Amino acid sequence: MSGHSKWHNIQGRKNAQDAKRGKVFQKLSREIYMAAKSGGPDPSGNPTLRMVIDKARSNNMPKDNIQRAIKKAEGNSDEHYDEITYEGYAPGGIAVFVEALTDNKNRTASDVRVAFTRNGGSLGATGSVAYMFDRKGYIVIDRSTTDADEDQVLLDVMDAGGDDLQTSDDAFEIYTDPKQFTAVRDALEKAGYKLAAAELTMVPQNTTPVPADKKEQFEHLVDALEDSDDVQNVYTAAADDED
Fold this sequence. Notes:
Elements: H1 7-16, H2 21-39, H3 47-58, H4 63-74, E1 82-90, E2 94-102, H5 105-118, E3 122-124, E4 133-142, H6 150-160, E5 164-167, E6 171-176, H7 181-190, E7 197-204, H8 215-227, E8 231-236
Antiparallel strand pairs: 1-2, 1-3, 2-8, 4-6, 4-7, 5-6
Pfam families: TACO1_YebC_N, Transcrip_reg
Keywords: Cytoplasm, DNA-binding, Nucleotidyltransferase, Transcription, Transcription regulation, Transferase
Domain TACO1/YebC-like second and third: 81-236
């Protein structure tokens, strides 16, 4: 997985979404609710819930919001959200994989279809691009939070069972087999590292540069998808600007 660094792009999107923080918290609340509803309200015994809580904290979601979503799941609420994925191509032939959590499949399908067609993309059939991505555990250590050098971090990552370490000026990015994600995360925390991010993600096997004349359309498509209340994650095979 050489050359594809996510952290720079993640930070950039977080900064761009500061004005949409309320919507981000709403989406995270859904994830927390569903995780607690299906696996119980105690994060120590519910790895999925703990992962979503970590994700919420990395997005600066207030503790009260997190607890509210968990308590809602403990109550008699009959809310239910279905997990749905959509696949397609952005302008320039860039593969796009979308994860949604919805209580109205027709509404979500319409929102996603409109986002693609209005921004020069095309919605594909199930399986049309999924094979181009791998499910991976993804962990980030901000380099400003540790004195460890790359050799030490690599040793600790390998000892923890991680698959790959990528180093940049700002961060150590670790990729794991999704089944080993929880064990690797816990081992790194036990080793004293403060994790800036820890989540399951979709990593493209290969990346494609966005043509200069398609870049604005591409960004509008991703923004339109992320603006949907039901869309949780948008993954693309676009090459990073620095690649």
